Amino acid sequence: MAYNLLKGKKGIIFGALDEKSIAWRTALRCREEGAELVLSNAPVALRMGEINKLATAVEAPVIGADVTNMDDLKKLFEESMKHFGGGIDFVLHSIGMSLNMRKNRHYTAIDYGFNQKTMDISAISLHRLLRTAWDMDALNEWCSVIALTYIAAQRVFPDYNEMADAKTLLEGITRNFGYHYALKKKVRVNTVSQSPTRTTAGSGVKGFDGFITYAEKMSPLGNATGDQCADYCVTLFSDLTRMVTMQNLFHDGGFSFTGVTEAVIHQMEK
Predict the structure, then answer these.
(1) For residue 58, is pLDDT > 80?
(2) CB neighbourhood size of 8 (10 A)
(3) Within 10 Å of residue 204's Cβ, how many Cβ atoms?
(4) 3-class SS at 97?
(5) Between residues 260 and 73, which one has the greater pLDDT?
(6) φ, ψ dihedrals at 36, nearest 5°
(7) How far apart, in whole angstroms, are the C-alpha atoms of residue 236 and residue 256?
(8) pLDDT given at position 206
(9) CA angle, corner 257, sides to 198 and 188, nearest 5?
């Protein structure tokens, strides 16, 4: 059901790869709620994914951008503002990549060159994005920026590897840049800490199937789906949440504040 929560709003969605992507599901919901969109991803992801299919569904142009390249980001905002005929009302940062995980390197033996690239792509890219928008005055007043994160930023999940560090940095950038952008133009910046979700990227984490089952048992409401995360993002992009900024918002069925559940106890007693 649509409520026209984003009618007249214009936004950029980063990171949609295929139909499993939270960014993909969010783009569909934003369009359903009346938003106009621009889709963006890295050039290599544009070749590997199916983003043109999404572009047709949401009637949006696709503008490739390497988020570690300031010139690419400047071009993206320039072309987006030209397309919209003005500034941006919301942005979704759904970007993450770990070279050490891809290379099966244990956390205690990471390649530091790979690690720098992971941090640049998965976390510092948010700072680059916000700084570019800041310098260009590309975001409208009360614009809402969301970056997707995970509870591994606060708790140890051994197989999440260096991405845990990247998410910690991402959340720090959210708070610090969020403070300055709120003062400058009432722009709000938040992270959404989502349940483990069967995306193409998430499924590549070692032991993912076992963990998603565990998380389901540990969450009083169960794991939040990608579509439910998209619904939550829509509320944060809307005017109903104007006073929410600099927050890490858990969207995980209660997992983050549950010590143990009866289902887990019963499983352990078997």
Answers:
(1) yes
(2) 9
(3) 11
(4) coil
(5) 73
(6) -100, 140
(7) 20
(8) 65
(9) 75
Contacts of 31 (CB under 8 A, 6+ apart): 37, 57, 58, 59, 60
10-269 CATH pick, 3.90.228.20, 3.90.1300.10, 3.40.50.720, 3.50.50.100: 3.40.50.720
Q: Which residues contact 255 (CB under 8 A, 6 or more apart)?
A: 151, 195, 215, 218, 219, 223
Q: Specify whether the backbone of 225 is left (phi greater than 0), alpha (psi in -120 to 50) or beta.
A: beta
**Domain boundaries defined on the chain:** 10-269
Residues 119-169 pLDDT 10s: 999 999 999 999 999 999 999 999 999 999 999 999 999 989 999 999 999
Structure tokens at 180: 């300055």
pLDDT at 201 over 70: no
Element (H, E) at 28: helix 22-32
